[in-house]
Amino acid sequence: MNPFFQNQTRKKFYLRLLSQTPSLGIPAQKRKPPKTSLQTVFRYVLAPTVGGFLSWLLISALRSGQKRLYFLSRDGYLFYRGAKLLCSLLHLPIECRYLYGSRYALRFPLLHQNKASALSFLFGETQGLTAHMIFRRAKLTPLQEKAVLKRLSLPFSPFLPLSPSQRKLLYRRLKNCGLFFACLNRHSTRAFAALSGYLRKEGLLDDVSFAVVDSGWNGSVQKDLWEILRLLGRKRPVYGYYFGLYRIPKGVSHAFYHSYLFGPENGFWKKVWFGHNLFEAIFTAPYGITLGYRKGGGGFVPYGKAVSPKKAAFLKTAGEEIDAYLRLFARYHALCPARIPKERKTIAALLFLLCFFPTHSEAKQLGALSFSEGILDEKSRPLAPKLSKKELKSGYLIPSIRKRAGLFSYPFKESLWYPGSAAICQRPVFKHLFHYALFRTARQLRLGLQARLESRGDPS
C-alpha cells in the first residue's frame, strides 16, 4: 500500500498541520493519543473543524449583534451541542436553540401557494425516483393515490424507477390533474398551520435579532423559513451562517448569507474537492429526518423517522469526542478574530486529506455510514460502496458526461463519496482520483458559469 494512505503516516500529516495552528492543535494534543483510525479522525480532523467553525460563528454573531442562534436539524446538531457548551464556558451573551426541521418539513407547507414550484420540489433529484415516491412526498393517502393514478392512466408501473421520458410524461399529466392538486393543497395547508404553531412556540416571531446555522450548500431552507415568517408577520430579516455555500437562491441578498469555508463567489478549488455527502453523513443527529409537526405537549411538536442503532452509536461517540475537545479548546483559546484565517486554512487542509485522499481504513469505516440524497431520505445506502474498476471509471470526466446524457445502458452502481470508494479499491487510487478531479473541476466550472449568467439579471 502507498505510505500516503497508511494510518500512521496520515496521523503524522494531521499532527503536522495542527502544530502550525496552536489554537486548534493544543486541545487535540492534550488528550491521550488515539488508538484507532476513527479516533484519529474524530480528534485530529472533526473536532478541530467544529472548534474552528464555532469560533468564527460566535465571533461573527457577536459582531453583528445576534442575540439568538437557531441551529437547524439535522446538520446543526453537533454544532448546536458545541456552541451551547462554548457559550457556557466562555460566558457569551448568545442564546443557542435547536430547531427541528428539514428541507421537506419547511418546504411542504408552502406547496399550496405555487403549482410549478410544488411540482419542481416533488420531482427533486433522487436516484431511482418513482411515481409512488412522488405521491408519498405529496402526503397522499393510499385511497387518494389510487384515485389519482386512475385519472392519470399511466402506461408504466408507479413502483418502478422513472426513465427521463416517463418523468416528463408524469410531470405533464400531474400538472393538469385537478384531483392531485386538490389533495396536495389540502395536506399542505394543514401542514402550514402546524408549522406556524411550532415556529411561534420556538420564538421565531419574537422581536429579537436571530440567525440560523446550518451546514449549507445552497441556503434554500433559510429562504423558505424567511418566506414563512413573513407570511406570519415577522418584519426583521433572517440571517444565516453556514459551513459552506455553493450558491444561494435566486432573488435573495448576499448580505443575509455568510459562509465559513467557501461561498458562492470564492473557494473554487475547495468546492472541487469538498465532500458534502461525507460531511452531512458525519455531522448529523441521532434521529431521522423531520417529516412535519403535530399537536402535542401543549402545542406543536416535530415528528419524523428513527435512525439505525449503528448510526446512533457513531454519533454518540462523535459527540463525546467533540465535547471533550471543546472543553480544552475553551480553556486554551480565547475568541480571536485575527486567528480565523489561519484556522480556516488548517481546517481546509485537514478536510482536503479526509474528503479527497482518505486512507483505506478511513474510507471503509466512514464509507459504511448510510446516506440518502432523497427529500424523505428515500433509498438510504452506504456512502462509499466497493466498486468494480468499470464502475470507478464511470466517475471519470468523459464517461460522466456520456452517462448524464443517457448514452450508457450499463446500470452503474454509483458512489456517494467517490474518493472513499476509490480508496477501498486501493489500486490505482491516484489514477482514479486524478480523473475524478477532472470531472469535478469541469462540473464546478459549468456551475460557476451558470451562476454568473443567472446573476446578471438578478438585482440583488
Explain what this protein looks like in three dimensions.
There is one protein chain. The protein has 460 residues and is α/β, with parallel strands linked by helices. The chain folds into three domains: 3-105 and 194-360, no CATH class; 115-185, no CATH class; 365-455, no CATH class. The chain has helices at 7-19, 22-29, 37-64, 77-89, 103-107, 115-122, 131-137, 142-152, 164-175, 178-201, 220-231, 268-273, 276-282, 309-332, 340-356, 360-366, 389-393, 397-404, 418-425, 429-455, and strands spanning 68-72, 95-99, 210-217, 239-245, 257-262, 290-296, 299-304, 370-371, 381-382. Strand 1, helix 4 and strand 2 form a beta-alpha-beta unit. The model has no long low-confidence stretch (mean pLDDT 90).
**How far is the N terminus from the C terminus?**
51 Å
Order of helices and strands: HHHEHEHHHHHHEHEEHHEEHHHEEHHHH
Give average pLDDT, whole number.
Answer: 90
With helices defined by DSSP (H or I, 4 residues minimum), what is the helix count? 20
Nearest-angstrom radius of gyration? 23 Å
Proportion in helices: 40-55%
Strand order of the largest sheet: 2-1-3-4-5
